[in-house]
Amino acid sequence: MGNGYEREREALGARLRDLRRRTGLNGVAFADLLGWAQSKVSRLELGRQTATESDVTAWVQATGAPAGLADELLTLLRSIEAEYVTWKRDLRVGVRSKQRAFAGLEARVSRIRGVETCVVPGLLQTAEYARYRIAEMPALHAVPEDVDQAVAMRMQRQQVIYDPTKTFHFLLLEPVLHNRLCPDEVLAGQLDRLLAASHLANLTLGIVPLTARLPFAPLNGWWIFDDGLVTFETVAAEVHLRDPAEIELYVNAFEQLAGVALHDGGARRVIDRVASDLRRE
After folding, report:
1. What mean pLDDT value characterizes the chain?
2. Whole-prediction pTM value?
3. How far apart are CA 158 and CA 160, in angstroms?
4. Residue 248 half-sphere exposure toward CB, CA atoms < 13 A
5. Looking at domain 91-280, does it have CATH number 3.30.870?
6. Exposure on the CB side of residue 255, measured as CA atoms within 13 A
7. Per residue in 237-258, pLDDT tens?
8. Using an 8 Å Cβ cutoff, are 247 and 239 in contact?
9. Distance between CA 9 and CA 68 in Å, rounded?
10. Which CATH number fits domain 4-84: 3.40.50.2000, 1.10.340.30, 1.10.260.40, 3.40.50.10420?
11. Once rounded to an integer, what is the mean pLDDT over residues 4-12?
12. Which of 62, 185, 210, 277 has its CB surrounded by the most CB atoms within 10 Å?
């Protein structure tokens, strides 16, 4: 079974398909009527592509359905868009705005748990490491480049980890410590930063070592905010999950990974070892 946004996209596709069938037109003829490729009609009906508002409006008009139905389908579409937010759309005014949105979310919750399989969590990044990470976004998604402002905002966000009323538990797979996403000297400083953060009283840092027997394949990282929201990122988008059953699944997965992670002194020993190897190189 897919995620919530996938099910909603499929539900919208089914509604569109039902409207098209009422016209008596097959997919090819309906695509011709709209001036679209037949493959687009197929992808929309199967929920493999998210419709735009103009797509939905044109579809309803082409079927001769009441205008009120278009409003209903547009409401469903906006619900999907709230759960599946493309980076292209989310970063259309620059990267700093996204950092501000993260800060607002982090301020509203009291417990944050996160799994990272590739990168150091933003709340634990040095300014130098953050600069290399943030600079990837404008280059990859062709959005406005405001890297300096975004880095400053990310550093401001980090004040939240010193709030004693909040708790944090981060799990990093060991490759996070090795990945060369920046120059070696920047990575060395980042490892030192992780060591320092591991001593914070309200923050738990776990490292899943390369030698750990993994309970499942963690294909991507994810973040749990209190028990009401899970987010994860893909190359194309950020996904938000609010369904209680899905949140429970991610909480359970987090706990399974935490069970094979090294914490406290064990985590620091792994970081020290990686830092020592880096210095020797």
Report:
1. 90
2. 0.74
3. 5
4. 3
5. yes
6. 6
7. 788 888 788 899 999 999 999 9
8. no
9. 20
10. 1.10.260.40
11. 78
12. 62
